[in-house]
Design a protein that fits this description.
alpha/beta; 22 helices; three-stranded antiparallel β-sheet; 10 strands
């Protein structure tokens, strides 16, 4: 099998761009249950029956694409792809039996399957949504273009299948013969299937060489649309068993159940620390100060002096943070999870954080900032990809009883509120420090509310205790040492990113860090083995994610 150009043709580039969509397939009840080995067999057979309808659509699409291809070699390559699908259809019955299942009765296509089939066949017929295509495609170039579009609509399905099944296969014990879907997973992880997926991508690259930028944009749109249809297809598979995803289904609003989400802000929601944002506002404010030398809001501190002061404060904070963590970290890992030991250690952070904040106040660097400048900076703040979309969707869901709380050391609650100021995200509850103001200009003082891990935990507990009528299912999302206590006290603690300091300190006190997807598969196994999927706080296990898409897929689904 050949190797793709490292730079990547269009197939590689599009997969890289839209690979994050695979999370929404991976985290469907269908695949989580399948990975756990306890997906109901009737559900699996329903899926296989729908998959047959899609295979027929792929075969027909290839037939139409072959007619459109201009080059004999391209026609031959497409013919081979079609032959692969036709052979798979012929061997489908025996494959299902080989996997250990009885054949399903003939079924009609579901609405979601029909939508996917219609998309494939419309594309292969040259009917592209939003594109002006002549009623009769006559010229060779027009036909070749449609062949490329068709491959662009088919390619993501095969790459997605290969990718997801390899993700699942990595979680399985190769010697476990009891996993009833292992043969199915191995089939889609085979070299033969990988070669098939690669041939489609290779041909897509070849057919796209002569296309214009606008036509490549069409392929990108089709590729993405196909990925979304895959998400819809697997999300629509009927699940007739208890599943651990999506989490939002677990609380029963009729019984007083509420999903309570607690989230850190700096470097969990944001791409940058908010203190650096406030520093830039202060420096820009100084640069705009009256140039004639008259008294300014910042008491004549030059912008160079201001930047130097910020740098010194930042350096001192970093150095003392490292020393503080080192001083509270045990030299030897405890034998079992010790929440008490970790909490006692983190109580020592309070003095360090309070002294650091006092130095900031005494320096005067937060004095003279305009509230409107802060709000504008918040509105333009770069949030982690998928973060704002997740909160938008969760707050718009009228059928979901949910409360969202931002718990942050950030010096300025206005910055956080303005970052989430658009649409329904206004409903977020922000718990943070505030900058004191006099007529919309900051005085340099910090109204201190949350300065340490224990104060964050106190705020977490106060919120829950003030709403005792609800049966809370709590989720905490964070990424720093200051979040550890809340993460562990929540029913589900999710660590965003890969802070080595947080992981190292947690592990020394017996905290386990488990990738979220593998943790969900293990949790799904408990549903059958233990008969319950209850989440328990203080379990000592935290779940790690690399993106907000994972959090979105886990909590809300697609």
């Amino acid at each position: 099998m050949g190797v793709m150009d490292v730079e990547g043709g269009i197939a590689r580039k599009l997969w890289t761009k839209f690979r994050s969509e695979s999370v929404f397939v991976n985290y469907t009840p269908f695949f989580v249950c399948l990975a756990a080995g306890n997906l109901n067999a009737d559900v699996f057979l329903h899926y296989t029956s729908q998959h047959v309808h899609l295979l027929n659509a792929f075969a027909h699409a290839y037939e139409l694409a072959e007619e459109c291809a201009d080059d004999d070699e391209d026609k031959k390559a497409i013919r081979k792809l079609r032959k692969h699908v036709k052979n798979k259809l012929k061997s489908h019955d025996s494959l299902v039996r080989e996997w250990g299942f009885e054949l399903p009765e003939e079924s009609t296509s579901t609405n979601v399957t029909v939508k996917y089939m219609d998309f494939l066949l419309a594309t292969a017929s040259g009917r592209i949504e939003g594109q002006k295509v002549p009623g009769k495609i006559a010229t060779p170039f027009e036909k070749t273009k449609v062949a490329a579009y068709t491959l662009g609509a088919i390619a993501p399905c095969m790459r997605l299948f290969a990718f997801i099944n390899k993700e699942i296969q990595a979680l399985l014990d190769p010697n476990d013969s009891n996993h009833i879907y292992k043969k199915w997973i191995d089939h889609y992880c085979s070299q033969n299937f990988e070669a098939y997926a690669f041939r489609i991508e290779e041909l897509l690259d070849m057919l796209s060489i002569s296309l214009t930028g606008e036509e490549l944009d069409v392929i990108e749109k089709l590729y993405h649309q196909s990925m979304r249809l895959e998400v819809d297809f697997f999300s629509s598979q009927p699940i007739i068993q208890e599943a651990v995803v999506p989490l939002s289904r677990m609380p029963d609003p009729a019984a007083g159940g509420q999903l309570a989400i607690f989230c850190d802000f700096d470097l969990t929601c944001t791409a940058f620390d908010s203190s650096a944002i406030l520093a830039e506002i202060a420096i820009i404010t100084m640069q705009k100060a009256d140039p004639d030398g008259s008294e300014t809001q910042l008491d004549q501190m030059s912008s160079a002096d201001l930047r130097s002061t910020w740098d010194a404060l930042s350096t001192q904070y970093t150095e003392e943070f490292v020393q503080c963590v080192k001083s509270i970290t045990p030299t030897e890992t405890v034998k079992s999870f010790s929440y008490k030991g970790l909490r006692e250690a983190l109580e020592q952070f309070a003095d360090f954080e309070k002294k650091a904040n006092s130095r900031v106040v005494q320096s005067g660097v937060l004095k003279g900032l305009n509230q409107e400048d802060i709000k504008r900076a918040g509105q333009g703040l770069i949030l982690q990809g998928g973060c704002k979309g997740f909160f938008h969707k969760i707050m718009k869901n009228e059928n979901l009883n949910v409360a969202v709380h931002i718990l942050s050391y950030c010096w300025c609650g206005d910055l956080i509120r303005s970052a989430f100021s658009s649409g329904e995200v206004k409903a977020l509850n922000v718990h943070s420090n505030e900058l004191a103001c006099d007529e919309s200009i900051t005085t340099g003082e910090i109204i201190k509310k949350l300065e340490s891990p224990t104060e964050k935990l106190q705020a977490f507990n106060n919120i829950l205790n003030n709403d005792k009528d609800c049966q809370h299912l709590t989720v905490c999302i964070g990424g720093s040492v200051g979040d550890l206590l809340c993460l562990l006290e929540a029913d589900v603690g999710i660590v965003m990113g890969s802070s080595p300091t947080l992981r190292r300190l947690g592990e020394q006190f017996g905290v386990s860090f488990v990738p979220l997807f593998s943790g969900l598969v293990a949790k799904q196994r408990e549903v059958i083995e233990v008969g319950s999927s209850n989440w328990k706080k203080l379990s000592g296990t935290l779940y790690t994610v690399s993106s907000w898409d994972e959090i979105h897929a886990f909590i809300l689904g697609s």
